Amino acid sequence: MSVDYGKLTPLDAARCAELEAQLFEGDDPWPARAFLAELAAKHIHYVAARADDKLVGYAGIARLGRKRPYEYEIHTVGVDPAYQGQGIGRQLVTRLLEIASGATVFLEVRTDNAAAIKLYESLGFVIVGVRKRYYRVSGADAYTMRRDPS
């Protein structure tokens, strides 16, 4: 299987919402309009993963602050369940880290998402705190993770 990586576009918003509903059911998945708003913001960047011209993954990162040194925050990472375990999530996050170009990067991840935590730790993120009931609908907690400049 060949996966191509590039920019996420507004035409991808509906597919992203479809994947969100599968991936984050019970945790307030983002609708298409949320992706459209993210894509319209100048300080937010999204990467897409496509297999056979089908969107199978997406990830977004936002630059925080107006003056250097910037920090970044990963907003979301999603991979179609049929394509998980093939390194797509790692590639998406790696590309986001390239956008951050050595800056400090933060993210939140459910405390029970062992696969994602393992991925983030392997990329240099460390747990720096817990956000109780971060996911409002389910009430699940999230770890805040940070990756310092390399």
The overall number of domains is 1
Number of strands: 7
Biggest β-sheet strands, sense, barrel: 7 strands, mixed
End-to-end gap:
32 Å
Average pLDDT metric: 96
Give me the CATH architecture, please. Answer: 3-Layer(aba) Sandwich
| Oligomeric nature of the chains | single chain
Report the β-strand fraction as a percent range: 25-35%
The total count of helices amounts to 4
Shape: globular
CATH topology: Aminopeptidase
Low-confidence stretches: none
EC number: 2.3.1.266
Protein name: [Ribosomal protein bS18]-alanine N-acetyltransferase
Keywords: Cytoplasm, Transferase
Function: Acetylates the N-terminal alanine of ribosomal protein bS18.
Structural commentary:
With 150 residues, this protein is an alpha+beta fold. It has a single domain, classed as 3-Layer(aba) Sandwich (Aminopeptidase). The protein is built from four helices and seven strands. Strands 1-2-3-4-5-7-6 form a seven-stranded mixed sheet, with helices on both faces. Helix 1 packs across helix 2. The protein is globular. The mean pLDDT is 96.
